Amino acid sequence: MARATSDDVSDEGFVDGYLAFLLAKASHLVSGGFHRQLKELGVSIATWRILAVLRDGARPVGDLADRVLLNQPTLSKTLDRLERDGLIKRSREAANRRSVTVSLEPRGRALAAKLVPLANAHEGEAFSALSLAERKALVRMLQRTIATNA
Fold it and tell me: What's the CA gap between 76 and 79, in Å, rounded?
């Protein structure tokens, strides 16, 4: 199967059809609005990402770092703060004392429960130009692209 190139997609200019640029720009524009909401609530982007991921269940630190797009030293500092604030807890695995799992405390679960509907509403507005079928297709395409490049 031939790959589409930016020359196949747009006559406007290179970046107007360059997928990596378009993904970055879309992410910047879509995320920016929600990030402003988080700032107004006093919640950092890193905190939001951690709460959103842990809402679905406990995660090992390494996996959490990958999912929240932070390197482990930065994640560790953030986890220290979240633990002090009573939002998360870290547990050592009995079988492997070096392995640390992170989970939400009740305060963290409550904050995530407050933020997820805001995120869903923001996403709905940001992608309102797409039909439900287009949104689902976009999610599947992005998931496949991420899996291919992970």
Answer: 5
**Structural contact between residues 106 and 85, judged by C-beta atoms closer than 8 angstroms:** no
Task: Compute the distance between CA of residue 110 and CA of residue 104 in angstroms, rounded to an integer.
Answer: 9
Q: Count CB-CB contacts under 10 A for residue 119.
A: 15
Those residues whose C-beta lies under 8 Å from the C-beta of residue 63, and which sit 6 or more positions away, are none
Q: pTM, whole model, 2 decimals?
A: 0.84
pLDDT tens string 106-148:
999 999 999 999 999 999 999 999 999 999 999 999 999 999 9
Q: Cβ(65)–Cβ(71) under 8 Å?
A: yes
**Domain assignments of the chain as residue spans, ordered by start:** 10-149
Q: Which CATH class is domain 10-149?
A: mainly alpha
CB atoms under 10 Å from CB of 77, counted, come to 12
- Bridge partners of 101, per DSSP, are 60, 91
